[in-house]
Amino acid sequence: MPESVPVRCPACRREHLYTVPSYPCACGAPVAPPLNRLSEPSVVTHRTWDDDWVAVRCTLCGREDQWPQPDLGCPCGAILRVPVNGAVRPLGEDGPPPGGGEAPMPPRAAFQPVAIRTARDAVTAAALYLRWLGYRDVRRADRRQPNGIGLAARGVLAQVDPTVRPASPRDVECLWLTALSESARSVYFSLSGYADDARGVADRLGVPLFVLDLSGTPQPVNSPADELVADRA
To answer: Is the pLDDT of residue 17 over 70?
Structure first.
């Protein structure tokens, strides 16, 4: 059963009952950040990618992955960061599981989406999907993308476009060129879909295109995307 704790807003002193969300480990077990009941929540004044993620180890298989840092919005307008137990580490600094070897990997469970309400949710959904495909070290890309947010992992460069306009051919070409310069595969996630000519460019260049629906499930919209899902990285 999901853990719930009382959380008092430091700004207005209003109290909330917060239920921590759980996410599916690659082994299929639900994983949730362990909440720290002894520490007070803090108000988020400036977001950074590293602060938005926390390292959590699956109690079933021992695999450690990065999951969204728990937070909640107060009606007064403050965003509260709920404290958790354990060290927070930037994405891409995953260490080996206990024992020094790779954790056993059972068959991959079905992807569990995260509902999209904000641009940050769209980035989280794309990052979780890349991890579900098999890319463990998902992090914020070093290079800024012309539109949206860049995500990177070993062998892949993704762009998440949470804007209200369909992605253009230039958006797809810029991502492909950047990924090509880094010898990485390119993947595009868009909240508003793609212009028809953008799909044509993506098919020609072999760029997988996904549309993010509001449930948080990326939907493949071209053959390269279908092949990527079938391959599961």
So the answer is: yes
Q: How far is CA 23 from the centre of its chain?
A: 11
Distance in angstroms (rounded) separating the CA atoms of residues 215 and 160: 16
- Sketch the domain layout of the chain as residue ranges: 4-81, 119-231
Residue type, 146: P
Alpha carbon distance 208, 129 (integer Å): 13
Q: Give the model confidence (pLDDT) of 96-149 as tens digits.
A: 344 444 445 455 677 888 889 888 889 989 998 998 898 878 888 877 766 788
The pLDDT tens digits for 63-101 are 887 788 888 888 898 888 888 875 443 333 344 344 444
Q: Tokens 């599981």 map to which residue?
A: 97
Q: How confident is the model at residue 5 (pLDDT cuts 50, 70, 90)?
A: confident
The answer to whether 152 touches 140, Cβ cutoff 8 Å, is yes
Note whether 168 and 189 are within 8 A (CB).
Answer: no
CATH topology of domain 119-231: Trna Endonuclease; Chain: A, domain 1 (3.40.1350)
DSSP 169-213: HHHHHHHHHHHHHTT-EEEEEESS-B-HHHHHHHHHHT--EEEE-
DSSP strand pairing (79-81 vs 71-73): antiparallel
181-198 burial, b at 16+ Cβ within 10 Å, e below that, comes to eeebbbbbbbbebbbeeb
In the chain, which ranges are continuous DSSP H helix? Answer: 119-133, 169-181, 196-205, 223-231
